[in-house]
Design brief:
eight-stranded mixed β-sheet; HAD_sf; alpha/beta; DUF2183 domain-containing protein; APP1_cat; 2 domains; phosphatidate phosphatase activity; Rossmann fold; single chain; Mg2+_PAP
């Protein structure tokens, strides 16, 4: 048996024990809603079902110790109903508790809308009938919208020094969540991009964990960054490995966005501490009609060292197959803004 199989089985055994323990304490499956996105025809609704104490007050997640985000009890196989406008569907949460549903014919107009995710009654599982539905937000992008922004989070708008294990653990688990530092100038840079491309959707694509969604959402609002859906990952083991591939996650999600919005040409924003230049360059080479430009934040040598153990970028962005595609880079949002003004796209 492979190590990943052992870890995966251990995770499942521990969560099953926690599910039984939570149910015995009177805890119930509750929906954590994420921000979704969609076109005028199809909407993608995201959420997660976790066990929680129905009598507990709302957590002040913004100022808590980061490790508290990761102590959750996922609720697998829970029946839920998802409703968006005129469309509705019934499904079950996945083995990790996730709800990921696409609804067609919703009838929603472009802009932000509320949709609902409702845990359905299940007497065999001890789920009562009086639980109110949870509201989730979705961004509907108009069919006439021709520009959008895809943004990384870690070390692009939020200083985290991922994926260096010890530093990442300290930043994510020990520091209080309201002490996270933004990359200077990124709010101004995005404000200018959206000024030149009105109503451009901003989609945050990150290898960060879904457990951090609430604090990341508050971080964006607190630091004046655009509101937008987030496409994050689950940090648990997979059937083939101990960790999910961050590069593959970004490649798949980019392709999904290209399919969902065939009329949009995207501005891809990331940093050179991981694989963003290569991932974005490959996307531009494979789909040259879908990428408008690439912007890369350059980490300092110290940040590079903390990020991946080397003083130089993990991938040299200049080696990416960008061709004539507009490409800018800078040490922070202020430098990116200067470069953008010199070469607007």
């Amino acid at each position: 048996m492979a190590l990943s199989d052992i870890v995966h089985k251990a995770e499942r055994t521990i969560n099953n024990y926690n599910v039984r323990r939570s149910a015995a304490r009177g805890w119930l499956p509750q929906v954590t809603a994420y921000k979704g996105y969609g076109s005028e025809e199809t909407v993608h609704v995201l959420g997660r079902v976790l066990y929680g104490d129905p009598a507990a007050p709302e957590n002040e997640a913004w100022a808590q110790r980061g490790y508290r985000q990761f102590f959750t009890v996922q609720a697998p196989g829970i029946p839920v109903r998802v409703t968006a406008g005129e469309a509705s569907a019934t499904t079950h949460s996945t083995a990790q508790g996730y709800v990921d549903v696409q609804l067609h014919g919703h009838g929603l107009t472009p802009g932000w809308h509320d949709v609902t995710i409702e845990v359905l009654a299940d007497p065999n599982a001890g789920i009562p009938t009086d639980q109110p539905p949870t509201t989730a937000e979705v961004l509907i992008v108009g069919d006439d919208q021709d520009a959008g922004i895809v943004s990384d989070i870690d070390d692009t708008v939020l200083i985290t020094w991922l994926p260096r294990a010890m530093t990442a653990a300290w930043n994510s688990w020990v520091k209080r969540t309201n002490t996270r530092q933004p990359v200077p100038g990124m709010a101004r840079f995005y404000e200018k991009l959206r000024e030149d491309h009105p109503n451009a959707p901003v989609i945050y694509l990150s290898t960060g964990a879904w457990n951090t969604f609430d604090t990341l959402e508050t971080f964006l609002e607190h630091n004046g960054l655009p509101k937008g859906p987030m496409l994050l990952t689950d940090w648990g083991p997979t059937p083939t490995g101990l960790f999910r591939s961050g590069k593959e996650h970004k490649r798949v999600q980019l392709r999904n966005l290209f399919i969902a919005f065939p009329q949009i040409k995207w501005i891809l924003v990331g940093d050179d501490g991981q694989h963003d230049p290569l991932t974005y360059g490959d996307a531009a080479e494979e789909h040259p009609d879908r990428v408008r430009a690439i912007a890369i934040r350059n980490l300092t040598p110290g940040e590079q060292l903390l990020s991946h153990g080397s003083l130089t970028p993990l991938v040299d962005e200049r080696d990416s197959a960008l061709g004539p595609l507009p490409f800018i880079q800078g040490a922070d949002g202020n430098k990116l803004l200067e470069a953008y003004r010199a070469r607007e796209f």
